[in-house]
């Protein structure tokens, strides 16, 4: 059977599974549609949350980020997991007790203000839409690489599948397809990693293999990797970072952003009890950690594999790296997986010194004494995970599995985001603000239509990605962390916090963060409109625009606190509401209203 | 009614204390061991590198998991003790 047929079989089978689940889990009421009926088991919800959270970026790009950045990019690992600790302790149980369907529901009711509700709706939609673009393009890439269809067809196909199970099943359909998608993606991620870890270290568990001995050289794997990359002019893989302030703030921004992203928060509305929301956050992190503990191993091992593929003499015990570097492989003798990926343009070779050999090193280092005239091999970081099975010479079905896994990661996150968007429109905007008299049936229809509309918008943006797609992740995390997270937290932990304080805080956090991001990344992300060049010298106190979300959150807290002290305390019934969300007693199911 | 109120206030205080404790550990392993104190931990070797690197790539994530389960377990006991569970 050809590789194409195998890929088609795996992806097709996974799609059949998702659609089967969608038919089984049709939504019969708005409660089914928004919170899956409110009866999801905490472990099931944990698994669905893990799939909801781990996007195409986690599945495809994370290992590449770690491979290229080494220690410095540990921020992503800690940031995208540490957020669950604050989510579990500061938000999830209380919002579950509050018992409504959406994030703007809580902000609007708690701050007794439709202005606050509207700010929350806008933040939610902007954060979720920017995030969903990446999912659609990610699915498009996976489709075009593995199913040999054009990118456009790939994105349309992805949109159709999501449409089928999200529009009919709502949160109920999404929950159970996400569970299936988690299983597909974690198996796909782990199998090649286990083989590679075993080949390099003799230890089949990647997270342990990473810290054990590299069989061929007899050195610890990370020490070997440091030797190899420094011989090629790169920073040591494990090298420390100078700008610690920025590293701390970037990690903190990712954490508060994670805790404030609405598509993650609403997953905790689906469990039956307050205590379940706490357990569920723990399970979610366990399932996420299965991938996030494997990713650094995949990253470091792939980096070593790539270097020793190009410089075979560096693989074993090396006396003199200078000599070993003299004999990279001939371009004509490159392995098959390099050939395959050259066709996609994600690996490219340019023989600058015309010696027929591949010189791969850090361009910033001067190796003219070795007769090198520049780095000749460009490798896109994103291929590391996708090419892993080929690098490890694994059979074709593993490649098929990776294809299904990458698509599962993109679809599961896209579906969660689309639900957050559609519920903000049908529930918060239409039902709560515009037409409170709308019937249950009318609201369901509105929810389905807005879901359909959101899918069309996401598809359009996936087909015509704005040039700034990569930067928008900073925007999503900045908005969620600087505006939504502090408002939600103060709504629970400060009885004195009132409407004026919350609104002023949200706007101040949001505006400061946007201004800082736009100053360095371009106004509204239009290229070349940035006021200052995006270089560390220009950053205030060395804080990168990507790390500013944490500062925005602090501004939000400070402004909200100051404004609330000089304005009237919230009315008694609101203070009673805050009391009631603090105690689990009497939660019941997510209530309709 | 007054008793209910003091009871509830006690429960909330205990919860906030617990959160403070857990978040202190959360910050210590991630911002502390993995980032700020890494140079101080440089002398402790772990599989070809140092303890700070291990905390940054594995240790902090493992600690986070333990923290959430510990918090959930403690809160369940508090819920029962104060009679405020579901």
Automatic annotation (TrEMBL), chain A:
PROSITE patterns: NA_SOLUT_SYMP_2, NA_SOLUT_SYMP_3. It is a multi-pass membrane protein. GO terms for molecular function: symporter activity. The chain crosses the membrane at residues 6-25, 77-95, 116-133, 153-170, 182-201, 247-269, 281-302, 397-425, 445-463, 469-490, 502-526, 538-563. Keywords: Cell membrane, Ion transport, Membrane, Sodium, Sodium transport, Symport, Transmembrane, Transmembrane helix, Transport. The keyword Ion transport applies. Coiled coil: none annotated. Pfam families: SSF. It comes from the Bacteria. Its main location: membrane. This is Cation acetate symporter. It comes from Vreelandella glaciei. The lineage of its organism: Bacteria, Pseudomonadati, Pseudomonadota, Gammaproteobacteria, Oceanospirillales.
Automatic annotation (TrEMBL), chain B:
The chain crosses the membrane at residues 18-41, 53-73. Residues 9-84 form the Sodium symporter small subunit domain. Signal peptide: none annotated. Keywords: Membrane, Transmembrane, Transmembrane helix. This is Membrane protein. The lineage of its organism: Bacteria, Pseudomonadati, Pseudomonadota, Gammaproteobacteria, Oceanospirillales.
């Amino acid at each position: 059977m050809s590789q194409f047929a195998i890929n088609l079989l795996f992806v097709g089978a996974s799609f059949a599974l998702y659609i089967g689940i969608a038919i089984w889990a049709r939504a019969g009421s708005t409660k089914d549609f928004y919170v899956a009926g409110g009866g999801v088991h905490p472990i099931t919800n944990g698994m669905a949350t893990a799939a909801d959270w781990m996007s195409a970026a986690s599945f495809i790009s994370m290992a590449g980020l770690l491979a290229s950045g080494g220690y410095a990019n540990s921020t992503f690992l800690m940031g995208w997991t540490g957020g669950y600790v604050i989510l579990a302790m500061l938000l999830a149980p209380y919002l579950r007790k509050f018992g409504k369907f959406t994030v703007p529901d809580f902000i609007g009711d708690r701050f007794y203000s439709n202005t606050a509700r509207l700010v929350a709706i806008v933040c939610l939609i902007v954060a979720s839409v920017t995030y969903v673009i990446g999912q659609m393009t990610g699915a498009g890439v996976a489709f075009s690489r593995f199913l040999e269809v054009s990118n456009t067809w790939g994105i349309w196909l992805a949109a159709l599948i999501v449409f089928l199970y999200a529009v009919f099943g709502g949160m109920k359909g999404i929950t159970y397809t996400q569970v299936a998608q988690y299983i597909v993606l974690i198996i796909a991620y782990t199998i090649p990693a286990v083989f590679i870890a075993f080949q390099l270290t003799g230890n089949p568990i990647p997270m342990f293999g990473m810290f054990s001995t590299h069989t061929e050289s007899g050195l610890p794997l990370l020490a070997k990797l440091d030797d190899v990359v420094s011989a090629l002019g790169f920073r040591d893989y494990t090298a420390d970072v100078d700008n610690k302030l920025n590293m701390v703030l970037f990690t903190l921004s990712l954490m508060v952003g994670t805790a404030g992203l609405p598509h993650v928060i609403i997953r905790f509305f689906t469990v039956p009890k307050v205590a379940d929301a706490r357990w569920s956050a723990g399970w979610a992190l366990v399932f996420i950690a299965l991938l996030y503990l494997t990713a650094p191993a995949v990253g470091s091992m792939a980096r070593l594999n790539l270097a020793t593929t190009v410089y075979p003499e560096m693989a074993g015990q090396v006396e003199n790296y200078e000599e070993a570097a003299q004999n990279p492989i001939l371009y004509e003798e490159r392995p098959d997986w390099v050939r395959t990926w050259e066709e996609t343009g994600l690996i490219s070779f340019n023989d600058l010194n015309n010696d027929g050999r591949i010189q791969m090193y850090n361009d910033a280092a001067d190796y003219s004494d070795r007769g090198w005239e520049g780095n000749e091999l460009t490798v896109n970081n994103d291929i590391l995970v996708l090419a892993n099975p080929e690098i490890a010479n694994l059979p074709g079905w593993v490649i098929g599995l990776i294809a299904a896994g990458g698509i599962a990661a993109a679809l599961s996150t896209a579906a969660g985001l689309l639900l957050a968007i559609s519920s903000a429109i049908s529930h918060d905007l239409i039902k709560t603000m515009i037409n409170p008299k709308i019937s249950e049936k009318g609201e369901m229809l509105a929810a389905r239509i807005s879901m359909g509309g959101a899918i069309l918008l996401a598809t359009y943006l996936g087909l015509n990605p704005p040039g700034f797609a990569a930067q928008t992740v900073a925007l999503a995390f900045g908005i969620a962390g600087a505006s939504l997270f502090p408002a939600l937290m103060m709504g629970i932990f400060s009885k004195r916090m009132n409407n004026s304080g919350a609104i002023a805080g949200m706007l101040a956090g949001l505006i400061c963060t946007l201004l800082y991001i736009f100053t360095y990344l371009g106004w509204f992300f239009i290229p070349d409109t940035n006021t200052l060049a995006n270089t560390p010298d220009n950053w205030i106190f060395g804080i990168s625009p990507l790390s500013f979300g944490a500062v925005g959150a602090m501004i939000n807290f400070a402004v909200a606190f100051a404004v609330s002290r000089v304005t009237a305390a919230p009315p008694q019934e609101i203070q009673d509401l805050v009391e009631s969300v603090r105690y689990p007693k009497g939660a019941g199911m997510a209530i309709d209203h | 009614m007054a008793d209910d109120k003091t009871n509830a206030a006690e429960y909330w205080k205990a919860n906030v204390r617990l959160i403070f404790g857990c978040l202190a550990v959360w910050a210590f392993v991630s911002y502390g061991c993995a980032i700020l104190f890494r140079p101080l931990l440089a002398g402790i070797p772990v599989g070809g590198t140092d303890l700070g690197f291990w905390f940054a790539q594995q240790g902090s994530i493992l600690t986070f998991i333990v923290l959430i389960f510990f918090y959930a377990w403690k809160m369940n006991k508090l819920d029962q003790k104060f009679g405020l569970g579901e």
